[in-house]
Specification:
The chain contains nine helices and 18 strands. Helices cover 28% and strands 27% of the residues. The two termini are 19 Å apart. Helix 1 crosses helix 8. The strands form six sheets. Strands 1, 2, 3, 4, 5, 8 and 9 form a seven-stranded antiparallel beta sheet that branches. A three-stranded antiparallel beta sheet has the order 15-10-18. Strands 6-7 form a two-stranded antiparallel ribbon.
Length: 331
């Protein structure tokens, strides 16, 4: 089993649509289920339906790969979702303004992520913790600068013409453009390291296809840079902590799980699907998943969720999967 960090260098705007009326809104990043579906589509286009079928059939028992959600990077600084736990080490030393900033903070730099997860109280008896905590608070202002330079969201006007009357209807498309030295990344865990060249080709092909919406207009295209994690990343990925941090969406394989000592948020996943085999386009079933940043006391065991609508029946129908198997970090 091997882990890789894959940086996405976007050469075009990115659009990840948000459920609701209109096309103006766009989400911050592609979630792990969206990325997994995009990789499956690339496998289908590149290697054929039989290969994709075999991959999905064996996935529940022997997953060939696990992917995280996509998170931002800029100037070789990587960000992870802020864990859903209160950090006394930092919180007790913060001013009122800093506490407000901490509350609104969605991401942490990787080197700050480990500090946050320690959850040790600041005290004179622990001068190292005091120094680390004060350093973290002093660097809070940098977060605002990083996130402002990361990307720009804007609206592109479009016009739809009525086929019968040629009447025009003006609407806008929301999209995100990343700075030249910024983008998204995701973590990929391979069960067999000998297959990394194959998955490198698949990710490269996905970059040519694009990810997200408006791909027919060239949106979502990127080049992938594969990195073998070292330093802080190496420590995070090999850490043997007692808690489990979700770096991707999670849907439990059991109907009921014990959430007594868990800290979590739920995320609604819904939308449309298009079947390449049949040409059918329908709304898929809504499913709720545990969001990135959630913390569990035991290893979360996820699975593929079939969201095929009940109204789609007959011999041409087939399962529509959303990936609920999370990429986890032990903290």
């Amino acid at each position: 089993m091997s882990d890789y960090l894959i940086k996405m260098h976007f050469s075009a705007p990115l659009r990840i649509g948000e459920s609701g009326i209109g096309l103006e809104k766009t989400v911050e990043f592609p979630h792990s289920d969206t990325l997994f579906s995009a990789l499956c589509h690339a496998v289908l286009e590149l290697e054929g339906e039989s290969v994709l079928h075999d991959f999905l059939v064996t996935f529940p028992d022997r997953p060939a790969l696990i992917v995280s959600s996509c998170f931002p990077w800029i100037d070789d600084v990587y960000f992870l979702p802020k864990p859903m736990v209160y950090n006394r080490q930092v919180g007790e030393k913060a001013t009122a303004v800093q506490k407000k900033t901490l509350k609104s903070l969605n991401y942490l730099k990787v080197d700050h992520f480990a500090l946050w997860c320690k959850d040790e109280p600041l005290s004179v008896a622990n001068p190292e913790a005091v120094s680390e905590g004060q350093k973290f608070l002093a660097e809070l202002d940098e977060y605002k600068d990083y996130l402002q330079r990361l990307s720009i969201d804007y609206l592109t006007p479009r016009v739809a013409l009525d086929r019968a009357s040629s009447a025009s209807n003006l609407f806008s498309i929301g999209q995100r453009v990343f700075a030249e030295n910024a983008g998204l990344y995701f973590l990929l865990r391979l069960a067999d390291d000998q297959n990394w060249e194959r998955w490198q080709q698949i990710v490269t092909y996905l970059g040519e296809l694009g990810i997200g919406g408006e791909r027919s207009s060239g949106f979502g295209r990127f080049t992938a840079e594969w990195i073998k994690p070292q330093g802080e990343w190496g420590k995070l990925l090999t850490n043997q902590g007692k808690r489990y941090f979700l770096a991707g969406l999670f849907h439990p394989e059991q109907d009921a799980i014990d959430l007594t000592d868990a800290q979590y948020q739920l995320l609604e996943r819904r939308g449309w699907f298009w079947s390449r085999r049949t040409g059918v386009q329908m709304k898929r079933k809504t499913v709720w998943m545990f969001a990135e940043g959630s913390i569990f006391p035991v290893l979360p065991k996820g699975h593929l969720v079939d969201v095929k609508p009940d109204a789609w029946t007959g011999g041409e129908s087939h399962p529509i999967f959303r990936n609920g198997l999370p990429f986890v970090l032990q903290i």
